[in-house]
Every structure is written in C-alpha cells, then in structure tokens.
UniProtKB/TrEMBL annotation, chain A:
Transmembrane segments: none annotated. It comes from Cereibacter ovatus. InterPro entries: SoxD, SoxD_sf. The lineage of its organism: Bacteria, Pseudomonadati, Pseudomonadota, Alphaproteobacteria, Rhodobacterales. This is Heterotetrameric sarcosine oxidase delta subunit. Gene3D superfamilies: Folate-binding superfamily (3.30.2270.10). GO terms for biological process: tetrahydrofolate metabolic process. GO terms for molecular function: sarcosine oxidase activity.
UniProtKB/TrEMBL annotation, chain B:
It is an enzyme of class 1 (oxidoreductase). The lineage of its organism: Bacteria, Pseudomonadati, Pseudomonadota, Alphaproteobacteria, Rhodobacterales. Its main location: cytoplasm. It comes from Cereibacter ovatus. InterPro entries: FAD-dep_OxRdtase (IPR006076), FAD/NAD-bd_sf (IPR036188), Rhodanese-like_dom (IPR001763), SoxB (IPR006278). This is Sarcosine oxidase subunit beta.
C-alpha cells in the first residue's frame, strides 16, 4: 500500500486517506494561448515509466494539496513537498539521482 | 495451416493426437517488412489479420516484448457490448460486436463467444434517465438494446437483491446480443490466422527505439536487432506513451492499473453479464463456474500490473448489497493490467507526426470488446494512410480541436 507523508501535517498517510491529482508542475496557459499550448496543459502528459512528480491531496486528513516524487514502475516514494513549489526541490532531486543514476532529470 | 474441424478431431483421436501442428510459427525477424505492428495483443493481432484479409498486405511482422496476449488481452473480464451513447463509439463497438458473432468461423478457432446478454443496472433515478436516453440513442444507431423494469431484471438474475435499501434496482438497460468470449482464444485465433497468411509473430522482442529519417519511420530497434519497415503501427495499450516517446511525440494518455478478480468456482447461478455503474462493479460467471468480477481503475499513475487492495475491497463491498450470495464466497485470484486512459475516455486511432507511423491506443478499461472493430479500422488506416469512417472521429487531433467523444460523461464511469 502506498504511503505518503503529508508535508503540512506530517501524517504518514496511506492511500485510502489520499486522492491523487496526477502530473505536477504543469505549465498553465490562459486566454490568448494557442491550441497547442492548451492541449499541452489540458491533455498531453509525460506519463513516465519511472520517476514521476505528481499532485496529491490529503483528502481525509488536513485536506491540503501537496506534491510527491514517486516511481511509477516500482511504486517507490522519493519524497513529498508543499504544493507552493514551482519545481522539485534540490534535496528530492538529489535523492532521486542517488537512487536512479540513469534518471534523465526533470524534463 | 491444417483446419480445425470435427473430422480433424476424429482423425487425431485415431492416432493419439500426434498430428496437431503448432498454432503459429516462431520465426526470427526478417530484415524488413511492409508493415510492423508493435504489440501482439488482441488489437495488434487483429490489425495484422485485417491488413491481410481486407487489404492483401501480408508482409507483416507483429512484434511483442513479452508473450502473445499477455497484457490486457489476457487480463480483462471478457465483456462484449456496444451500448454506447456517442455515435462514433457505438459504430466502432457495434462493428466489433458483430464481428465477434462470426469470429470463430472466420478464424477457424473457437473464441467461445457467448452472447448471453448484458444488463446495466440503473440504481439511481439519474441512471434511469441516462439509460433510457442511451436506449433511444442506440435505436437511432442501429444497436439493439432495450429498457427493462426491475421485475424483469429479477427474473433474469434470481440471485440479485433488487430491494436495496441503499441502491435498489430500478430497471436496467439490456443488450441481448452482448456477452463474453474467451479472451486468450481471441488472441490465439488471430495469431494462428496471421501466421497462416505468412505473417511473422515475433515474441520476446522489445522495441527499444524508432529509427526515422525526414519525418518518416525507417524501422525499429529491438532486442533482436534492427528491423526495417515501410509502415509502423503502434498498438501497445499501457506502454503507448513510452513507444510514442521513442518516436518523438507525446500522447494525451496516462497509464493506471485496473484490477479484476475471480471467486472460487460454484454451480451456475448467473447467465448474463451484470454491470452496476453506480457502485461500480461488474460480474459474470465463467464456464468454469468462477464469478468474474471487475471494478473501477486504481487512480494513480502506475506501471506495475498490480493494484491496491482497497480497490478490490471497495468493488466487492459495493456488489454485496445487490448480490448477497458473494458475501460468503472465497476469492481465488486477483490481477491487474495497465490501461491507457485518455482525457475523454475514448480511444485514439490516429495518424501521427511521422508520416508512415500510426497509433491505436487509449482503449482504457474497455478494450477487449473492441478488438475486432479496432483491428478492422486500424488496418484500414494503416493500409490507406487515412482513417476510414470507423476511425475518422478518433484522431488524436480531437484533443487540440476540442471535439471530444465524451464517454466518461456518458457512462458516468470508466467503461
């Protein structure tokens, strides 16, 4: 069972307490953007088999959104961090690089 | 290929079954082909079969990283139906369902298609209105479905508790021509027929790269070396995103796990397929007597072919009110497959940014029922380079253009 630590309340929550929100760090596009930009924001997903940065909500806990770095091929969790973060924090990137030497980095 | 028939059985019975030949060959790859289909699941093999049968293209290789039919084709709940709301969905699923009716004869391989009837229970007033609407839509689409009341549901499925209290059965959408088929046999039957046409089915051969030149695919790098091709068809379901990335484009697809399970075998007790979408579970009984049960997908991105236990628990908990009988049953096996979910929960049959590369994916949780229709439409697309009427609406440019085929709204659940 997947267990993520909520970075706000510190609870080690198992997945029945959480709701997944899929890919994190999406670049949002507003009015005046092209069709391609809207498509990239709305639908096109990295969907990697491996390291994935994603949004989660601690629904049945503090109720807040946070972000997690996780491996979709092994379900290993590298870490969680607050949602008010525009890119993965350096300590989590370092941890992923230590665990996955062949990882291509944040794309 | 020696035909299977009653005479073949009699002949082999006389000589201790020594004369059966292998159903399909296991060749080494040639240096190049007219068409390479990546993925030897149902959809990939059906694509190859209809390329040969409908378009006379037989210099085809179907390459597969694992074993034939070992992905979602071997992991589904074998349900076949075509009672969709949107016209383009109804057209391709109904094509598939009608091809299933004659598939055993067509392939000379018993796929055990069993049109036992399929019920979609309405357990809220919202669902009653929704399914009545679907029945009317199906009438216009030429798909035979009907609305039946709760008493008739009870007559069809005596083990069902229709009184609730939480989710009473208010009626059901019945598709009499829906049912099930033997999922492995569908893959095996297509594989045997493809092999008989001279196509190469190459298992244990993983694609590791897509070689291209000037916007055209020239071949694929594989674990068995480079194989050249004039056209490439990517039909790999859960790993579509990975193969597309090798080819240099991104898909509106996310991979999640979908689980199913079977109970211990019991005496025949339910001879239709029942889907309950409000509580989100579906159930039928296999020929061995096992109750085959499925539910909703797990919700996070996942490539592990196994899901979370609490989803199975939710599915069973939801079905127990309607089927009290299952509360005392032991569950024998559980498994998961990786399904490729699109933004509108409808498939993609599409041209790609590479001129001679085509993709068939996004069938999500409902691919098995579509296999023959999907292969038929994909073969059309690959052979002619342009989608035919069945595939026309399923291009992936629909996400950019905003013309969704929104079955997620129509069905209320993944389907």
């Amino acid at each position: 069972m997947l267990i993520l630590e909520c970075p706000y309340c510190g609870v080690k929550a198992e997945e029945t307490e959480l709701s997944p929100g899929h890919e994190a760090h999406l670049k949002r596009f507003g009015p005046g953007s092209s069709d391609e930009q809207f498509e990239s924001y709305m639908f096109a997903r990295k969907n990697p088999k491996g390291v994935h940065f994603e949004r989660w909500r601690h629904t049945y806990g503090c109720g807040k959104w946070f972000l997690a770095a996780r491996c979709t091929a092994t379900l290993e969790v590298f870490g969680t961090y607050p949602a008010q973060t525009s890119e993965p924090p350096a300590d989590i990137v370092a941890k992923i690089k230590a665990r996955r030497p062949n990882w291509e980095g944040v794309k | 290929m020696k035909r299977y028939s009653v005479f073949a059985i009699a002949r082999e019975a006389m000589r201790h079954h020594t004369g059966w030949e292998r159903a399909w060959a296991s060749p080494l790859p040639k240096s190049s082909y007219d068409v390479i289909v990546v993925g030897a699941g149902g959809h990939g093999l059906a694509t190859a079969y209809y390329l040969g049968k409908n378009h006379g293209i037989t210099n085809v290789a179907v390459i597969e990283k694992g074993w034939l039919g070992g992905g979602n084709t071997g992991r589904n709940t074998t349900i076949i139906r075509s009672n969709y709301l949107q016209d383009s969905s109804a057209a391709i699923y109904e094509k598939a369902r009608s091809l299933y009716e004659g598939l055993s004869q067509d392939l000379n391989y018993n796929v055990m298609f069993s049109p036992r009837g399929l019920l979609m229970l309405a357990q809220t007033h919202h669902e009653v209105r929704g399914y009545m609407r679907t029945v009317h839509a199906n009438l216009l689409q030429g798909v035979e479905t009907e609305w039946i009341g709760p008493e008739q549901v009870k007559r069809l499925v005596p083990i069902m508790n229709i009184d609730g209290p939480r989710y009473p059965v208010l009626g059901a959408l019945l598709q009499k021509r829906g049912g099930t088929a033997r999922h492995d046999a569908v893959a095996w039957g297509y594989a045997r027929a493809c092999s008989a046409m001279g196509m190469d089915i190459i298992q244990q051969c993983e694609v590791t790269g897509v070689r291209q030149q000037g916007g055209q695919v020239t071949g694929v790098e594989t674990t068995k070396g480079f194989i050249g091709t004039k056209k490439l068809a990517i039909v790999v379901a859960g790993h579509s995103g990975q193969v597309a990335e090798m080819a240099g484009f991104r898909l509106p697809v996310e991979a999640v796990a979908l689980q199913a399970l079977v109970s211990e075998p019991i005496k025949p007790c339910i001879d239709v397929v029942v889907m309950a979408n409000t509580v989100h579970g579906y159930m039928s009984q296999s020929d061995k007597g096992e109750l085959v049960i499925g539910g909703g997908t797990d919700s996070f991105n996942n490539f592990t072919q196994r899901g979370s236990f609490h989803h199975i628990e939710e599915t069973l908990r939801a079905l127990i009110e309607t089927f009290p009988i299952i509360s005392r049953l032991k569950m024998l096996r559980q498994w998961g497959g990786i399904v490729d979910m699109t933004g509108d929960r409808s498939p993609i049959l599409s041209k790609t940014p590479l001129g001679n590369c085509f993709i068939n994916c996004g069938w999500g949780t409902g691919g098995f029922k579509a296999i023959p229709g999907s292969g038929w439409a994909m073969a059309d697309l690959v052979a002619k380079g342009e989608p035919g009427p069945l595939a026309a609406e399923f291009g992936m440019d629909r996400f950019r253009e905003g013309r969704f085929i929104d079955e997620s709204v129509a069905a209320g659940v993944a389907h």
